[in-house]
Amino acid sequence: MPYCCQCGQSVADHAVFCAACGTRQPAAKTATDYLYGISSRTASLLCYIPIVGWVVAIVVLASTRFREDTRARFNAFQGLYLFVAWLIVDWVLSPLFHISSDFGPGVYRVFPALMQVAVLCTWIFMIIKTAHDELYKLPILGDLAEKSVSEQR
Fold it and tell me: Are 61 and 29 in contact (CB under 8 A)?
């Protein structure tokens, strides 16, 4: 049970005024603001976690905390687009080259694996850049992310 900020008497949980002295009580922080303590840099960094960073990116884009933070939104969009690149390699190129490899030696299986390693290295590179608080724009995905941020203003 909270207490009055002026006289110290106990007040109801959501009381606006103290019943004893009539002093207006400060508004309590709402428990729904889960991203209150997360900095923009930390949120941007979490968007580049391989495979699961897309969840954080969607949370950052949907939250009111980062609605006006263009840097965090840019990193969230770029992290999402990097995850889409991973999905394209994993779901499209790998099966495509797997079908092609039935006709020849295993050289066709190396290309999708190299592409997955390239996307994974890009994630690690972006984590390092974001940890140093540098805004780095990837060649194609960065342009898409920049366009997405500017369209939402």
Answer: no
